[in-house]
Amino acid sequence: xxxxxxxxxxxxxxxxxxxxxxxxxxxxxxxxxxxxxxxxxxxxxxxxxxxxxxxxxxxxxxxxxxxxxxxxxxxxxxxxxxxx
Length: 84
Known about the structure:
Helix content is 46%, strand content 30%. The protein contains one helix and four strands.
């Protein structure tokens, strides 16, 4: 029984090791995409350092320079960036 528990624990640790990098890659991709959207709107943002996801296509982005933006899709499907 003890070897069975040890085997399960090892599998869980291995799964966690592989899950974390994929989440980090997704977060980095979201930060890059939001930075691009903010920049294309002509708004200042040195780099997106934090993202709060409120829902599908609804984010709060905090920039390195202190600016915060609410980025979402409106009813017509257009991207809206509002400074907060």
